[in-house]
Design brief:
The structure holds two protein chains of two kinds.
Chain A (H helix, E strand, L loop, with lengths): L4 E10 L2 E11 L4 E6 L5 H8 L7 E6 L2 E3 L4 H7 L1 E4 L11 H5 L6 E4 L2 E4 L1 H14 L16 H14 L4 E5 L7 H16 L3 E6 L2 H7 L2 E6 L2 E7 L5 H9 L2 H10 L4
Parallel strand pairs in A: 3-10, 3-11, 6-9, 9-10
Antiparallel strand pairs in A: 1-2, 1-4, 4-5, 7-8, 11-12
Chain B lengths: L1 H4 L10 H6 L4 H17 L8 H26 L7 H18 L4 H26 L3 H24 L3 E2 L2 H4 L7 H4 L1 E2 L1 H9 L20 E2 H19 L1 H11 L1 H6 L4 H27 L2 E2 L6 H11 L11 H20 L6 H25 L3
The chains are: A alpha/beta, B mainly alpha.
Chain lengths: 258, 370
């Protein structure tokens, strides 16, 4: 199977700061590729480059076999690269249906006027939410009444509905409780089985291990290699993320609980 | 996951009452009913509900409505415009300068004034969007700049701050009646003949009804409310207005052109202020440098009474229109009832506070915050 997206030797400099110093990652359709790294490792810069927010200083992006040069996030979204952000996805005061179709509002013609097709939006939203296992009181329920996990799920369902081929999840589980995390991980699994490539950013090794097919660790703007599921232990991943030595010392003092 | 599909036992059924409570218009509807009941009981015989009285508070309410529609959509988009009052004074003065001092045809004066004012609105929006400064500060600056010009320009060219003669200059113009005329005269004449509304008994207008038509001001107000409500609730752009004010970053991530939406709303607010100004100068026949003082706050109060959140992302044009109606009915009703007019401000302060507290409570219900 050929990768849906290949990031080759991506470098990104911000002035004199080298945020990415040659990162290469490829993602296959239907796989969950976990991107791990500590704070400041360059995860965010990397996915922003992938989703068209930043232009790489050097390096090449090949999407669906074609070299790609995204002018802006909009271009990446219409090509099929969707990003679900940790916080900045949903608007609490707006209804689920309005959120679901935000930026992609369905339109019907009433005479010469383009009108927001509320019936269609409501039906699709209810159906998609049911598929994801969320029971809404109604499509006009405000997103603010949903739990954090449910909001992530709505955001993922939205990206999938609008034809995402690559779904980038930016720390979707980092603010969630145990049960909500399980729900989101189950959603990731469901999406992957539909043949969508998932890029799952996290710094929680256990969450990554639960759904990941491959694991790439970033540290100080560089890749520390990509490992297949079963090839690497959670402990080894943890050590790679933290950059080795200090972690060993820390874990000693904490009794191996981290 | 299995029990989720059976419904979450921890989500209580929401009562119809609470469901009704989260409609943004609720405060406006309750307030409107309360105000009419109150004045119906205490001021019914004061002339407030005869044809002249109704026209009196309708015109005042319509004035509030015109600027409230603009302020409402802008507030839902997450911004304020404090320059509305100055814009009203400025727009009126521009029409007088162009149409009377410079003697341009009135329709050109009106169109050029609209272009200048909407451009100022765009500039407000552009500065807010580009600098990321609070619109409160940016438009406060515009408030002073425009008011300053409104006094400076007529003083320099005419050596006075009130310019008259606008009605004469508008005589025979094709565009001016769209703002200054009255419609439905035959209906009112018929109502007068039938004895349903009162007629003049003496003088050279004897036999004519005391109210001889609906001013275009009211037509504009109703038109703007309908268009504003439709755009907000029934179009794609309306969804973008909610999104821009609800969370600009989330909206941007979803591909909503937030900056452009906000700039357009600033332009629309300026447009509404200009409509107000043109109707006013056509009615008075003059432009004054002090016109429109404090109108920006009155617009914002009407919008807040109408259920919009000051923080953006939530509100209703119908609610804002009802807020404007309450505003107008109470202001004129107290006059009819013979209450000292300064008490109106006391009332205003209290109702504003009550509305904000109610809105905050409603916001908590919607977002499920505790």
């Amino acid at each position: 199977m050929s990768p849906i997206i290949e990031m080759k030797n991506i470098e990104k400099h911000f002035g004199s700061v080298i945020a990415l110093a040659g990162v290469s990652v490829d993602v296959l359709p239907g796989e969950c590729h976990c991107l791990l790294g500590d704070n400041g490792a360059g995860k965010s810069t990397f996915i922003k480059t992938m989703s068209g927010v930043h232009k790489p200083t050097k390096g090449e992006i090949v999407f669906d076999g074609q070299p790609m040069d995204f002018a802006n996030p909009r271009a990446a979204i219409s090509a099929g690269i969707a990003t679900v952000h940790q916080h900045l996805g949903m608007i609490p005061l707006m209804s689920v249906a309005r959120n679901f179709f935000m930026g992609n509002e369905p339109i019907k013609k009433v005479g010469p006027i383009n009108v927001f097709d509320h019936d269609y939006a409501n039906d699709v939203t209810m159906e998609e939410m049911k598929k994801m296992g969320i029971n809404l009181r109604g499509p006009d329920q405000a997103v603010g009444t949903l739990s954090g996990g449910e909001r992530q799920t709505v955001a993922i369902a939205r990206a999938v509905h609008f034809g995402a081929k690559v779904l980038i999840l930016d720390e979707p589980t980092s603010a969630l409780g145990v049960r909500q995390t399980a729900n989101v991980l189950a959603t990731i699994d469901r999406v992957r089985k539909q043949g969508i490539a998932v890029v799952f950013i996290t710094h929680n090794v256990r969450h990554a291990m639960a759904v990941g097919d491959r694991f790439t660790v970033l540290n100080r703007g560089k890749t520390l290699g990509t490992a297949l599921k079963g090839e690497i232990t959670p402990e080894a991943l943890q050590d790679l993320m933290a950059g080795g030595q200090e972690m060993v010392a820390l874990e000693g003092s904490l009794g191996g609980t981290v | 996951m299995s029990d989720v599909s059976n419904g979450d036992e921890r989500i209580k059924e929401i009562s119809k009452f609470r469901q009704a409570l989260i409609r943004p218009e609720l405060g406006g509807i309750v307030g409107t009913v309360a105000v009419f009941v109150f004045f119906g009981l205490f001021a019914f015989d004061s002339g407030m509900f005869n044809s002249q009285g109704v026209m009196n508070w309708s015109v005042v309410s319509a004035q509030f409505m015109i600027i409230a529609v603009g302020a409402c959509l802008l507030m839902i988009a997450g911004e304020f415009d404090l320059s509305v009052g100055s814009m009203i004074g400025f727009a009126g003065m521009m029409i007088a300068i162009f149409g009377v001092t410079l003697g341009w045809p009135m329709w050109i004066a009106i169109l050029v004034t609209f272009a200048i004012c909407v451009a100022f609105g765009a500039l407000n929006g552009y500065i807010v969007v580009k600098t990321g400064l609070p619109s409160f500060i940016v438009t406060l600056a515009t408030l002073f700049i425009l008011r300053g010009f409104t006094i400076f320009i007529p003083q320099t060219v005419e050596r006075k701050t009130i310019i008259g003669g606008i009605r004469e200059a508008a005589e025979g113009d094709w565009l001016a009646p769209i703002f200054g005329a009255k419609i439905g005269a035959p209906i009112f004449n018929w109502l007068g003949d039938m004895g349903i509304i009162s007629v003049f008994e003496r003088g050279n207008r004897a036999g004519e009804p005391v109210v001889n038509g609906i001013p275009m001001l009211i037509v504009w107000a109703i038109g703007l409310v309908i268009v504003g409500h439709f755009v907000l609730t029934r179009t794609r752009f309306g969804n973008w207005i909610f999104a821009a004010g609800g969370d600009a970053d989330a909206a941007r991530n979803a591909g909503v052109p937030v900056s452009s939406v906000k700039i357009k709303m600033f332009m629309f607010t300026a447009f509404c202020a200009t409509v107000f100004a043109v109707c006013q100068v056509m009615e008075f026949g003059s432009a004054g440098a002090d016109r429109g003082l404090l109108k920006e706050f009155e617009a914002i109060i009407a919008v807040v009474i109408g259920g919009a959140l000051l923080t953006g992302g939530y509100g209703s044009v119908i609610g804002a229109a009802l807020g404007a109606l309450i505003f107008g009915v109470v202001q004129q009703g107290l006059f009819f009832a013979g209450v000292e007019s300064s008490l109106f401000r006391v009332f205003l302060g209290i109702i504003l506070l009550a509305a904000v507290i109610l809105n905050t409570y409603i916001r908590r219900i919607i977002t499920g915050e505790r």
